[in-house]
Structure formats: structure tokens, C-alpha cells
Amino acid sequence: MSSELLAPLDLAFWHLESAGHPMHLGALAFFGPRPGGGGADGVLDLLAERAAAIPRFRMRVRDVLVPVGGATWSTAKDFDVRRHVQDVCLTGDDFTGEVTAAAGELMERPLERGLPPWEMYLLRGPRDGGFAVLVKLHHALADGMRAIAIGAGIFDEIADARRTGTRRARPVPPRSWLAGPRMLADLAQSRIEELGRAIGVGASVVRASRLDPPWLPALTAAPSGTRRLGTAVLQLDDVQQVRRVAGGTANDVLLAVVAGALRRWMHERGERLPATGPRALVPVSRRRPGSPPGAGNKLSAYLVELPVAEPDPLARVASIRDAMDRNKAAGPTRGAGAVALLADQLPYVAHRFGAPLAGGAARILFDVLVTSVPLPRSTLSLGGCPLREIYPMAPLARGQSLAVAMSSYAGQVHMGLVADGKALPDLDRLARATREELAALRDVDGSAAARQGAAR
């Protein structure tokens, strides 16, 4: 792979970035010591070796003359993996707290644009044992699902499978490179359908946009350029227990947990609960299994009102379940949440000059980003050290102060909360509220199940 044109949505993410508003996503992974002893020794070299073997990590963005305003992914001939993989030594006694704080500070720094847009940090404490790895990838390089597929190459299990596995060549039927009349007709029909969907999405965005004051000023504060990271661990069995009683999906329950946590957090802050909102943007991947590495971002999204004003936890789950059912019935390519699809219909030059202006429009459509990132179901390790926890991190939309990302691994749901450090200095309290909310939902559902059993 020597060069590849950036897809329109990738180009939009590239141009949305500014010095005080980075557009990278990330993950913070905690590893335990090797069985039999040993921790971070040799891990930095191993990270560098495996990262250097991932082809996408050698690609950087270069402007092109044609198409006007476009850019390509080009192989960096002077690629040096040591410029991307760095060692951070921490000295305090609270290793987890120090790692989380350091990760927040490292997420503040934009990636250097002349280099392949990614970084890895090995974070280790003063004692031999566990360690953490922070991965940063520019959103132009990958969406959440693609980021996992790319970054998973650092783990022992994935690296070993790629090194020893063989791919069966797929037969390619002969065809002419010249498009025939039927192909041209199909392309034209597809383009007309795409434009029709884009027009419908655009109309939905206009109808859904709000010009009223922000739902909560703390969530839509002016960006300070600072970042704070909060983490929470939820038990997947508890989530499934709630789902079995309340109905819906595990993701519906997790959205209700976020809504309830915001309610608790606002009460503790002394904030007044509004009658409606906030609105969450819930990304949906349009990536098909087996799509090629160069497929770019494949995203749409749903808009969901989080019922923060609803006092009944079970009613909050039901409200979100109904809203998500309506979204799914309409499909991910319709409705105001599918705003990412509009990027694919704009010319490249529009992204170059229009993205910085359009970036501030996010707050009139939604208040908070809530996303789920799928992980491999198998257990993972790095250099023989088992992966204990992994927290995904989503970028903040311009003019917004909170993004919530979740992933399931080893029977747990790991929540990574990324916030503007100045706007949400009490992010740890919000993270704790997610655990409290799930416990409350579990207790309420347990009581409801007991009542149903007594009624029988």
C-alpha cells in the first residue's frame, strides 16, 4: 500500500481538528504481572516491534492537487516507530490514579500532523508488576471498530495468529476495467439513492437542531483544551440481570445507566433537572465484516433523548428502549443522527474550508456522545502479561465537554469518560455515579422480579 485517497468523512475528521481541539480517540489498557513474576520488562521493545509491523501505522496524510482539497494516505518512507512509542515512568503509590491522570494529560496533546497520526505510551510504576498502555489514534485513521482491528495487533494472541496464519487466496473473476452500460447505470442509480438519503438526513438535521440555551452549560462549555479521564467498571452479569427483567438490549441498559448517573451527578451539584434531555449521539458502525483495511470511517448514529428527569429507574430503561427501537426500525441511514452520512456527499474542498466552521454546530444537535466499542471475546495478553481492564476513549465534539465510551471484556463493562478538564473537574463523581446507578437498577429489578414471582 503506497497511497490511498482519504474518504470524505475521514477528511472531515482531519480538518475538524485544531490545536486546542484534538480529534483522536484512544484506549487505556491495564495489564497484570506475568504468571510467575515479571512486569513491564521488554514491553516497550515489544510494543515498538509489533506496532512497526502494522501497515496502517506507517501511513501519513499528504495533500494532493487532484481532487481539489483532497488528501491521501501515503507510506512514510522515513517512518521511525520510536517517535511514536514512548516510555512514561510514574513514581507515586497510587498507580491507577496516576495512570488515569497522566492519560488525561496525554490525551490533551494533538498528534503531530506530519507523522503517521498515532502514539503509544507505556506507563509503569516504581515497582515491578502491572503496567498500562495508552493508545492514541486519529479519528481520520479509524473509527472505533476499525481502531480495535488495527490496534489489536499489539496483543500476543493477535500477533501470533497473524504471524503463523495463512490466508487463502480468493479467486477473482476476470473483468474489464472499462465500465459497461449496465455498470454505469447501476452507479448512477446508486448515486441518486445516496443523494436522496443525504437530502432526507439534511432535512432531519434541520428539524432536530435547537437554537435554545444549552441543556446544561457544563456539558456545552467553551473548550479549554484540557482533558480529564474518568473510569468505571460495571459487572456484565448485573447489566444482563437488569436486561432480563426490563427488556431491551444490554446497550439500552447501559444508556439508562448513563442517564441515571447524570441525574445523580446533577442532584449532587445542585443543578435543576430540565423537563427534557439531554440528547445523546449514539454512533452506529456501517462497517461490514471483512471490509478492507482502507475502507475508512464507516459511521452513522442515532439520536436518543436520555430521560434524566424521569425519577423511576425502570421507566428510564423503558424510555430508552422505545427510542432505540424507533431508531432501529428507521435504520442507521435515516434521521438526524445520520449526520455523518452528509460528509460523504460533500466535495473535498468543502471539508478543507468548511469543517472548522461546521465543527461548532454539534451542540445544536446533541449534548453528549455515548458509544459502545466491541472487543474480541477471547482473553488477551501483552508479552505474557494478562490484560485486566481496557477503557475506550472517544474524542470530544467541538463545544461539548463529555464523551462516554464503553467496552465489554472478561465479564466486565469498562467505561471511559473523557471530559474537558475545566468544565467537569468533578468527573470522578460522575464515574462513581454510573456504578451507583447500576446497583440501584439491579436492586429495583430484583424487587420487581420478586413481586412477579409472588404474583404467580
Describe it for me?
The chain has two domains: 3-164, Chloramphenicol acetyltransferase-like domain (Chloramphenicol Acetyltransferase, 2-Layer Sandwich), CATH 3.30.559.10; 191-378 and 388-455, Nonribosomal peptide synthetase, condensation domain (Chloramphenicol Acetyltransferase). The longest helix is centred in the C-terminal third of the chain and has 29 residues, at 427-455. The protein has helices at residues 8-16, 43-52, 95-108, 144-151, 156-164, 181-208, 236-246, 250-269, 313-330, 340-343, 348-358, 427-455; strands at 3-5, 24-31, 59-63, 71-75, 85-89, 118-124, 131-138, 228-235, 279-285, 299-305, 368-372, 381-382, 385-393, 402-409, 412-419. The strands form three sheets. Strands 5-6-7-2-13-12 form a six-stranded mixed β-sheet, sandwiched between helices. It is built from twelve helices and 15 strands. Helices cover 38% and strands 21% of the residues.
